[in-house]
Structure formats: C-alpha cells, structure tokens
Amino acid sequence: MKKKLSIHDIARELGVSATTISFVLKGGERGKKVSEPVKQRILSYIESIGYKPNPIAQNLRTGKSKIIGMLVEDISDPFFSAIGRIVEDSLYKSGYKIFHASTDNDTEKARNLLHLFRERQVDGYIVAPTPGIQKEILELLHEAKPVIVFDRYFPEIATTNVVIDNAGGAYTATMHLIENGFTKIAFVTLDSDQIQMSERLAGFNKAIAEANLESRCLKVRYKTSVQNLSAEIKEFISGYAGVDGILFGTNYLAVSGLKAIQDLQMIIPNDIGIVGFDDNSHFELFTPSITAVAQPVEQISKKIVQLLIKALSENDTVLTAKTYALPTELIVRESSVRNATFAVKTNMSKSETKL
Amino acid sequence: MKKKLSIHDIARELGVSATTISFVLKGGERGKKVSEPVKQRILSYIESIGYKPNPIAQNLRTGKSKIIGMLVEDISDPFFSAIGRIVEDSLYKSGYKIFHASTDNDTEKARNLLHLFRERQVDGYIVAPTPGIQKEILELLHEAKPVIVFDRYFPEIATTNVVIDNAGGAYTATMHLIENGFTKIAFVTLDSDQIQMSERLAGFNKAIAEANLESRCLKVRYKTSVQNLSAEIKEFISGYAGVDGILFGTNYLAVSGLKAIQDLQMIIPNDIGIVGFDDNSHFELFTPSITAVAQPVEQISKKIVQLLIKALSENDTVLTAKTYALPTELIVRESSVRNATFAVKTNMSKSETKL
DNA sequence: CTCGATTAGTAAATCGGTTTACCATTCAAA
DNA sequence: TTTGAATGGTAAACCGATTTACTAATCGAG
C-alpha cells in the first residue's frame, strides 16, 4: 500500500501548482480559466492514480463536512430505523454521510448530542426533537445551518417541519371504531405534551365528541418496560369497566396493550376493538390481524431529504419555515371489525395488499 | 454568538504559546512539565470560556478521527438496529461517533462504503461482511486499523469475530421440534454460502441425522419481497407433501413463512410446528406465540464494543484474531409444542418471563 | 567554578487542502 | 503606440490543531 499522495505531490510530479489542480477539481468560474491541455494532463493523471482529495483537509479549510447529524428518539424503534435507512441511502447518494444518535427523548442527552454534532461541523441537522430543546434548535438556525424537524415540532418556533396529520389519523381511526359499533372507546397514550401526542388526542376527542360519546383516556408514564406498561393498561381496562375499544397512541403502546388484553383473556374484536397508531409489518400476521394508522414512512423520508438537499445546495437561501403534514392511511384489518366468522379460530385470507 | 476561539486566540489572550496550551490539554509526559501556575491559568480560562479543541483540525494533524465505521446488512432490520443502538450508545460514551451504512448484502456497495469510511479516516470498523469482501478487510487490517467482524465471518482470513453459535442454535431448535413429535421437518433458509447460514444448516442436518429423519430444505433466493418469499414457501409446503415442521433460517423468512401458512389455512402447531431463528418482541404476541432461537443482542454488542475499545486504546497492540461464538437461547412458545388445550382458540397465559 | 542535565517554555513545521492576491503575457481598443 | 482588460498561472496565507526542535534559565555534581 503506497503512501497516499497529496495535491502537492501531484503538483510536483506534473510541474504545475497545487492551486491549479485545485481549480481544475472544483471546476466553476475559476476552473474554466485553466487551459485545456493542462486540464487534461491533470485530470488524466489524477484518474490514473485514483487521487481523491482528503475530506478532512477540505473540511478544515472550508468548514463544510459533508456530514449530516440525525437525532431520533430511538434508532432501534422500527419507525425511526425505517426512516433512518431511507434517509441514509439517499444522502449517501448525494455525497453526505450521517451521524445518528438516539435521545430516548431525554432533553439533556439531546443537548449534548447536538453540541457534539456542532463541534464536528455537520452541515445540516435532521431532528426529532425532545421537549425543551427549542433554544438549541434556534441557535443552529441562527448559525444558518439547515435544520429539518420531523415527527414532532414546536409551533412556537419557526422551523421546517415534516410530520404527519396526527389529528386526522386519530380522528379517522376513532371514527372507524365508532362506525364499527364500538361505543366505549379509550385512547391509551403517553403522558406527554409533545405535539404529535396532543394532536392525536385532539383527533380522538373530536371524533368522540361528534359521536356524543364519553371520552376515556389513559396517559401512561413515558416508555417504561413492556411489563410495566402492560400492567398499567391491564389495570386501566379492568378498572374502567366497559371499555370496548382502544386506540393506542404509539406502536409500543399497542404491543403492550395487546399483551394486557391477552392476559385478561379478552377476545379481539368481540370483547374489544383495537387500532394502533403506527403500522408494523407484523400486525398483518397477528391473530386477529391489527388495524393501524400507517405513517407514510417513505414519503416522510423523501421529503426530509428533498428539503435538506435543497437547503444545502442553495447555500445562501435559508429554509422557509413551513410545516409539511403528510396524510396517514388507515389500514383496516380484523382487530377493529366485528363479524360473525371471527368467533371461530381460523386463519382467514386477507383482502388487503399493503404490507 | 461569538466567533469560536482557536487555541491561538487563547494563547494571545493569556500571553503563552499555543504549544503550551496544547501540552496542558493533552496532559501526559509533556504536560507534566508545565508549571503549576501557568497550567492553572490556562485551565481556568479555558473552563470559563468553554473552549473545546476543533476535532477536525485534530483529525487532520493526528490522523485520528474518533469516528467508527459500522457496516451492517440493513439498519432497519430489528436485529441490526438493536445492535446498532447499543453499540452507538457505548461508543458515544467513549467519545466516538459512528458512521452507519447498510450494504443490503451487496458486495459492490459494501466496497464503496468501506472506501468512504477509509477516506474519512475512521479509527475502527465494525462490519457484518458481505460475500467477497475479504480483500478489502485484509487491506484495512494491513493498515493496522481495528476491525471487528460480526454476525458472519470468513474462516479463511484471520479477523476478530463476534458471532453466535449458529450450528448449536439450529441443532437445539431442530431437536426441540423432534422431541415434540414432528418428524417431517424442513429448514427454510437463504440460498447463501455465508457462514452463519451454512452453520445453521449444518446444525439442522446434524439433528436430523441423529434422529434418522429425512432432511428437507428450501433455499430461497435472497431477500426479495415478503410477497415473493411467501409465495415460494407456500409452494414448497404444498408441493413437498407432508412437511409437519419448519425451522426458519432468519426472522424475515419466519414472517414470510407465517404468512404462507396462514394463506394455506394450516393450523400451528397442529398441522405444522414452527421455530424461527432470531427472536422478535412480537413473537410472544402472535397466536399461537412463536418459538424462536434468540440471539444475545446485548452480549454481542457489548463484546464488539469491548474488543474495539481495547484495540483503540492499546494503539500498538493488534487485535488477536479470534472468534467469539456466543450462546443462543431457545425461547419455547406455543408454535412448536403440540398440546390438547391448543385446539381451542384461547389466549393462554405465558409462563415465560423473557421478552 | 564549570559542565551537563533538567526545567519551562516557544517558534516553526506540518497535516492537505482552498482561497486570496498578485504576476506575466497576450490581445483588442483608442 | 499606449492602455486596459482578459488569460493562464502561481506563491503564500489560511483553516486549527499537534509535534519537533530549539533556547534560556536553573540546578547539581565534580
């Protein structure tokens, strides 16, 4: 393995200056002013030895790292890892690399991670913010760094946000339960003020109010173990006599809730109808299969990347603060639809095609 | 937001040289030789303005990036994202950041990604290798970079490997099916030569041979859509009359297989017993719940980090080539155990505690 | 008292690029 | 013929640290 050559080594070898080589490689205004023969000689030599400029040196001089910092709640959560995967692939294609980090929705952790990203001079940020992180986000914007906020956002600060229609999704899901004859419907959600959760609650309440039903709600402490969540939900269901339908606010709440319902030996959907927020590839295979509000993961990812790339290329233009709320899709499966054939245990064929 | 100060700004401010500051910050042999008063003055000033050395400049000068490159097959796969999460957290604590990338098991892609990592001067590599990537890994070792290979490895090259006891896991799982009265057992796996898959096959065959049964095996083309996989498995089951038990080689094969079995309206475990390789938090909630060979995700991650950190700190010591094969655990659930009560659809309480 | 070693500190080179400022030519217009 | 603008190129500063090599001053031993 020969020592890596620097631009100066090449300059010496070719009898030109490093400056000229740099101009040729950058192209642009100044690159045009290099004569064709010299340009060709440089390019073909570089091609032949496979020279690539050292990105760290470039970074130091220009301040551009070609790295994006991505902050999510938990990269091992299927929703975030799906988005992470698509964003990663797209950005690599544009020559960017990614620093991932998980906050666990912990403000202090998020703050530290953003500082780390900043030290490393990342060129842009993709952030699913934790509560209380507004100031830090504003600082980034103040430094004219592109920031895309997603999954949740702060209405009070002017950022570019990519989210889903949480209220609409919850409303549609609740309406669906109502239309299927469930009347004592509860919303099981997090005890959180974050906007995605409060909007889901609002959507739920709107549907409940329109149908003149009573609003039932369980707000659990944030994301403890499945065991704890399950116990809490079990207590809620048995304590709150007569719940016959549940909309779960997140995918892991749905999982914990399903376990609770199993433990209570209740039959879905006969005893209780279920809809989850955030679909999962396994929900189709559950018995009964689980109805869910699906988030358009692909679209969310593409939108994030599109906005970010645009902001990074038009380096003078600041992102316009705007909230993009993408539509959700209710994937109706067995868990929310009462019908006669379901009383018998049988694997019925699914009509849906979407996975 | 004030301009970030450099070490020279501080030097000027304090009337000392940048060299001295650098020595103080590094500590070590040379740091001892700075007088106490000067040292204190520097440290307290730095503390007061919150100075942090620019890591890019450090990187350029020292060649150390404090970044680890992590190459997995697919970061959105639950197995890899779980490992990614734990590794990430641990390495951040040690001051490292991580570049993730997904190969989709594509050799060319993996090659490019490794080159990108190398250009970026990552300090170490964590790699779930694709086929045919031996040469590139050897090159990295040749540059004296720490490389931890995991999930699969190449027996022919001397690397540090963190894997699981694939043969043992498959053997135990197959034996379990045999002990539960299944006799026409098939192994549904990938058409792949990678060692993790061939060892699983070997473990399966060993158990089958010991029980004097006939070995049945379906090797599917690599990871197409769930629809395609499902169709292929369906055809296999119906075509290969009399299969009454299946060990699935990967988690997504199990999912596709379950869909196939649902479509065929077969009853698990009465008509067919099922064991999956690689557990999933949802398997407990399926009806029936799914027996699986669980990989010790936490242990794998910790081992990877431990070996890597050790190699990074003892910067002269080269990693000893060794394969660490961690034990699997068979999580027995309903899908592989025939019993009378199961004929009736009922949610039975689980005895297991593990999730 | 002198020489060598230790101590405390610094100037300058370096990592590998980019960018600014400047220097010759050449060519066209006045 | 002179001037002024392009043209084609380079030298040197710079980004912000680390590291090498060197200088003074002090100290202790012979």
TrEMBL record, chains A, B:
The keyword Magnesium does not apply. It comes from the Bacteria. Keywords: DNA-binding, Transcription, Transcription regulation. GO terms for molecular function: DNA-binding transcription factor activity; transcription cis-regulatory region binding. Residues 5-62 form the HTH lacI-type domain. Gene3D superfamilies: 3.40.50.2300, lambda repressor-like DNA-binding domains. The keyword NADP does not apply. Signal peptide: none annotated. It comes from Lacibacter luteus. Pfam families: LacI (PF00356), Peripla_BP_3 (PF13377). InterPro entries: HTH_LacI, LacI/GalR-like_sensor, Lambda_DNA-bd_dom_sf, Peripla_BP_I. This is LacI family transcriptional regulator.
